[in-house]
Amino acid sequence: MRAAGHLRGQALGVAISEFSPAFVQAYNTGAALFQAGRFDEAATVYRRLIDESPEIATPHAATLHGALGLCLRAAGRPDEALEPLRQALRLKPDHLDALNALGGILLDRRHLEHALIAFRELVRLKPGYPGALLTLGNLFMFTGDGGRASAVYRLALVVEPDMAVNYNNLGAVSLSLGRLAEAALNYRRALAIDVGKPEYRKNLGTCLLMAGDYADGTVAYEGRLEQGVWRKRNMPGVLWQGQPLAGKTLLVHFEQGLGDSFQYIRYAGVLKRMGARVLYECQPALKRVLSAAPDLDGLFAFGEPLPAYDYHISLMSLMHRLGTTPDSVPGGVPYLRAEPQLEAGWAERLDRLEGGKRPSLRIGINWHGNETGKSIPLECFEAMGKLPGVRLYSLQKVSGLDHLERLRDRVAVTELGADFDAGPDAFLDTAAVMANMDLIVTCDTSVCHLAGAMGRPTWVVLKWFADWRWMRDRLDSPWYPTMRLFRQASPNDWAEVMARVTAEVAAETGTRHGALAGEAGR
């Protein structure tokens, strides 16, 4: 920890002779304990010095309180650290280490606005304080101020021009602002300094994929597999790197989210045509819904015994190994289907809910996702639910259901009951209900990937800075031919994009109503 270097007798800012030998010895003992990682013991020393020195001069008291706060934070006791750090700043407002530590605690607690105040002051006092500019830039990113984040990261490069992380972060903010070429350049600069770092390679990959450059992007994206934070599988056997597959058994294993299994399971057909016997190891909750996927010779849930295989590969590495581009995405949609019995059962159940009077447009909606910024406020569906001939059905599970409770009187959404997808197998009812819908309107979650894989008419409403797989400006997806993309025109403006979606729904309803009227007149 950087602050350790400041816990020395000289940090009192005065000649040591002004203090008793016992005081100096105790202070230096605390500093030695801190540097040895014995933070709790160091805190005990500094707390005793504070208690025994009530008349100590203000600047020296600030040093003691600051030292205590730094020790408590390092000991994992941030609640106790807050007061001594604040006391140090009351006594000495330009106590840099205390300001940094206090800002760090506020940041850890996601009190972003208060952390922003602390780090702006720290940068004002000393722009070169190690890590201060980087943290301030990150805070501007977290609070959605990409312009200021970019300016701060550029200043960080002036102060520390050879720090790869500064280029990496500048790449991230450039990407968030839609400046893809600039982002790629900065990621490459980061890689020139910290050659081959997996995180930077992966970031470059997502940037290139977003730009539609799959040839280079899929190669760089492989860096994710070497990141320390990645959930490595360490599969036994030989990694498939393009070896001939004729007569060979290839095990493909899941890697990331549920939606990724829906999106990439299509590659089984490509591998099958290359002569492989294809096995897929999936997330346990998806085994049943994926059981209808074509071209699989074996489907296994994670944790189940696996048969012998010749090669293995991570699911999302197939883009790279098979040379996928936006123009060569494997087709075959629909390749996932609802179970016929469940589909028929939900057809009858929906008919009962509607009293035998089918609306012009049944719309299944999914508004809430687990990732930051992807969720559509449920109130944005209010106008859509009031359109003549439209009936909304909730496809939401687990998260986001509290929004229904809060807005039940405002937003007309039909709920499908407590038994909807209530079993251990996920998405079975969701698939069956979607098969009976005329349209799916959803945020970017696994629901949209299942709907797309089923070939259902699907409208995905995306945040302004969307996931790389939707690329940057396209209003369609090469992965799903029945899908339309609706993008925010500006960050966090769900009202505007949902107004466009609602207008399109109204037009669709009018078209259907006119078609039905024409048929009735014949």
From TrEMBL:
PROSITE patterns: TPR
Cross-referenced InterPro entries: TMTC_O-mannosyl-trnsfr, TPR-like_helical_dom_sf, TPR_rpt
KW Transport (keyword) present: no
Keyword DNA-binding: no
Ranges for the TPR repeats: 23-56, 62-95, 96-129, 164-197
Pfam family, one: TPR_16
Keyword vocabulary terms for this entry: TPR repeat
Protein name according to UniProt: Tetratricopeptide repeat protein
Source organism (scientific name): Azospirillum lipoferum
